[in-house]
Structures are given as structure tokens and as C-alpha cells.
Amino acid sequence: MTTIWLEEKQRAYRELSDVKADFAARGWFPGTSGNLSMRVGDYAPESFAFAVTASGKDKAASTPEDFLLVDQTGQPIEATKLKPSAETLIHCEIYRQTGCGAIFHIHSVFNSIVSELFWERRSVPVEGVELIKAFNIWDEEAVIDVPIVSNFADIPRIVPEVTERLDKRIPGILLRKHGIYAWGRDAFEARKHLEAFEFLFEYVYRMQLLKR
What we know:
Layout: H1 6-25, E1 35-44, E2 47-53, E3 67-71, H2 88-98, E4 102-106, H3 109-117, E5 123-127, E6 143-149, H4 159-165, E7 172-175, E8 179-184, H5 187-211
Parallel strand pairs: 6-7
Antiparallel strand pairs: 1-2, 1-4, 2-3, 4-8, 5-6, 7-8
């Protein structure tokens, strides 16, 4: 099992708390929705640990019960009465596939709309928009497709689609009529990617309106 030093855990909780407060102020956690995580300790695809938001908490508030540590299966690794976010298994699979350092999941009107608008093609097309460069894609007039996966109440049913559809060039994946998961090598990069996705989703939606 990965050794987690106290200072690593404290650092992760502090960074997640700052991100949580920022996103809550932007209205990205309606009705206690959304979740955040940050990997701590050493990493191997078959063995890792991460801090994740506890289930059902008001993310506009800051309490000692906001986060807990889980292993690569999504199970708590310390004695706690807290339950990890219901969607922790999706975080587990993204960490397993990418080795990233942080994953942020939020709900917004624009990411929910475009996930349904482009559901039949299973991806949101974005063409030639400057903020694609936020994903370290520097091609002139770059074209990307942000994957969309099914949104089932039974979270384990979603995981195989994440495995199949995840594109390692694109640091994000959408759940249909649900929200975006964005990740990066650390909290700064994951936040940058999330902000870029939200800009691009609003751009795509408004362009669809202008074309009609």
C-alpha cells in the first residue's frame, strides 16, 4: 500500500479546499453536486491513493469533514464515518488510465446542454478556438472532440465507457446531461483545463444558436 505522509495529506486537503471555495463561488456545485480529487503518494496503475470530496456535503461551506483518503478501488484507507463521493469509481478509472494528479468534476448549464446536443455523435466538436491551446494542442485551427459517455444511476456501468472513450490527448470527458470531468498533472493544470472546457462549451453552444 502507498505510504501517505501527513504533510502530503494536509497539502492535498488545503489545495482542494481552495479549489472547492473558488468553484462554489462560481456556482459550479449546485445542490451539493460535483466532486474533486487529488492524488497523494506514489503512483502505479494498480496501486495509488487520492483525496476526494465526501458525499453529500455543502461545498459552499468549509468543515473538517470535507475530504477523505481512498485507495485505487475507491475504498477509504483511514478509519472514517465519511463516505466518498458516489462517483469516486470514475476518478479511480481516470487515475488508472492517465496517471494524472488531480481531477475536478462540476455541473454547469453549458456542459450539460452540449452533452445532450451532441449525444448522437458521442463527442462535442470544437474547431479552431484559441483556448484549445490550454490542452497543449498547438496546431493552427486545431480540431478536437470531447468524448461523451452515458450517465447511469449505477456508477459501475459508466466506468467501462470511460475506459473505452477516454482520449489521453483531451484531458476531459463529459457525462451526458450531467457534467465534465477535467484533469491535469496537478491542481493548477486541472483547474486550467476545466476553465478552458467551460469556455469552449459555451462557445460551441452559442455558435449553434447563431447558425440557426
